[in-house]
């Protein structure tokens, strides 16, 4: 089944302790799509400027990603400049040039409207909600957000969160959203906001899914589920890893005939797998060159490093 | 098989955001023993003062823990005063009164010498080494340490670490010991120091075991293994949770006929299980009242929250 994703399609200028890259392709919807496309058909809604050439678009289309919903506006594309220091656990924003993204008004192409799966990648929450309302019959709607919207646009964000089946955020965002240190307490408060489930990403420590509603098909009772991350020695660039986690997670779900607890859990493992590839090179470089067999081999490795029930003695 | 543990048997005065407790029983060897005794026979080496009464000793002996090796010296017992703030992720030491522990010279009773398993709980590293040398034929030797010894007694600590089969430390200690942010890089550096394996505890995120030596019977190749922690809403007191993790981990290993990769992995799960009980009440209160069935039920829960291969759809 196909996924529609709405979010940024952008250029990133990145500095890590070891390297610098200017204006490489990025954006939340871009990274999500590059990851989810291994699992299912992906249709992108976004906006780009005159600097987004046919060559840039081809990095999506040649991988089967539908770009019908990417609007070409007059001006420059969204451009984020960021830096990572030390353990690279946090991105420092040096500059955000919204450009054509500043007046983005997402339009859903006719050919997208039959999609059953909708992912609202990190953008301004009223835009997320406007797209969400155009998919009243979606089977599953998931979304992400970021500190900026939590801190300064909370009222609007809460309206979007209430319409989600799955909210996918990280530890810091969960704490900021609720004012709670403890992640279980934070998770409970988030779920009172309306989503049926919550996936909290812990970076190098994996992710935890929380459920409040036993009737949610991905939930097994209300017990949480923890998926591991792969211990990685050389993180080249964490940009987009969270979006690629979401792409693997939601892509796997959309590829399955039915959402069951087992599918939801397996999807979290695929999320971790895609996130682990994402950090190995800059931006989406590693994932663009990835082979499906590598994904399956790493999925196997994720089980191997976390499961007791192995054939070994 | 029995375990000998050497370390502090002490009193703790603790302040958490919600509560205060004065002079409750604690110490690394005490907590370790209270946890490991569910799995195997435990023999303690330590020193206490005149304030450690028969009633205090009975909290060990009535649970089958051998206290022959606890020396009664003239003076007061080791007394640690600590506080936890906010997320309670770090203990703030307010006062350390070594008392009789300051001149502790561990003596190994004859009846302890046939034990095959030795755990060097957190004490001054030359004392750890002196005890270790009295068990030249131990099947498995594991140990812990803390920031203080890493920062100020590193040369001595390295001599002890070189003699360990398993070093059990936390994220912060691994980083301090190696000067490396990245835990995989840190793990590699630690293993160059001589231990056959390394367990890094991540607190609420679980633990990771690293192996450098394929011939180590607990290793499956050199792939790491990650065990989860239980998401816990109300952490009452984290004091001793690390020692109880070690007690569950090492106790389970000692209870098994042979160290295999499967035993090592399962032991990490039991470590997490015991750590998860430890934080539910002050000091060892929760673990002292624990029933074996509760341990097995929680072990099952640990599998349920982390394994894909369940009977559920």
TrEMBL record, chains A, B:
* Gene3D superfamilies the UniProt entry points to: 3.40.1190.20
One annotated GO molecular function is: kinase activity
Offer one Pfam family short name for this entry. PfkB
| Superkingdom, taxonomy of origin | Bacteria
InterPro entries registered for this protein in UniProt: PfkB_dom, Ribokinase-like
Q: Does the keyword Protein biosynthesis apply?
A: no
Give Gene Ontology CC terms.
cytosol
**What UniProt keywords apply to this chain's record, in alphabetical order?**
Kinase, Transferase
Can you give the residue ranges of the Carbohydrate kinase PfkB domain? 35-284
The entry's protein name is: Sugar or nucleoside kinase, ribokinase family
Q: Which organism is it from?
A: Terriglobus roseus
């Amino acid at each position: 089944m196909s996924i529609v994703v709405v979010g940024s399609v952008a250029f990133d200028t990145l500095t890590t302790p070891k390297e610098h890259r200017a204006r490489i392709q990025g954006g939340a919807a871009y990274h999500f799509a590059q990851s989810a496309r291994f699992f299912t058909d992906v249709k992108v809604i976004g906006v780009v400027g005159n600097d987004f050439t046919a060559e840039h678009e081809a990095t999506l289309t040649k991988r089967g990603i539908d770009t019908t919903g990417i609007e070409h506006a007059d001006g420059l594309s969204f451009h984020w400049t960021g830096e990572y220091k030390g353990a690279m656990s946090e991105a420092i924003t040096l500059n955000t040039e919204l450009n054509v993204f500043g007046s983005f008004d997402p339009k859903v192409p006719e050919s997208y409207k039959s999609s059953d799966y909708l992912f609202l990648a990190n953008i301004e929450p009223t835009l997320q909600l406007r797209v969400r309302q155009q998919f009243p019959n979606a089977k599953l709607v998931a979304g992400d957000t970021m500190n900026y919207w939590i801190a300064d646009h909370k009222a609007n964000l809460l309206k979007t969160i209430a319409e989600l089946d799955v909210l996918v955020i990280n530890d810091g965002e969960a704490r900021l959203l609720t004012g709670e240190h403890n992640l279980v307490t934070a998770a409970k408060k988030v779920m009172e906001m309306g989503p049926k489930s919550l996936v909290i990403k812990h970076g190098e420590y994996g992710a935890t899914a929380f459920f409040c509603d036993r009737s949610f098909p991905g939930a097994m009772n209300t017990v949480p589920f923890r998926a591991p991350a792969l211990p990685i020695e050389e993180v080249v660039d964490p940009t987009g890893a969270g979006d690629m986690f979401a792409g693997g997670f939601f892509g796997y779900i959309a590829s399955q005939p039915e959402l069951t607890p087992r599918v939801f859990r397996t999807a979290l493992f695929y999320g971790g797998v895609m996130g682990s590839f994402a950090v190995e090179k800059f931006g989406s470089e590693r994932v663009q060159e990835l082979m499906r067999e590598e994904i399956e081999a790493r999925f196997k490795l994720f089980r191997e490093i976390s499961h007791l029930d192995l054939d070994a003695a």
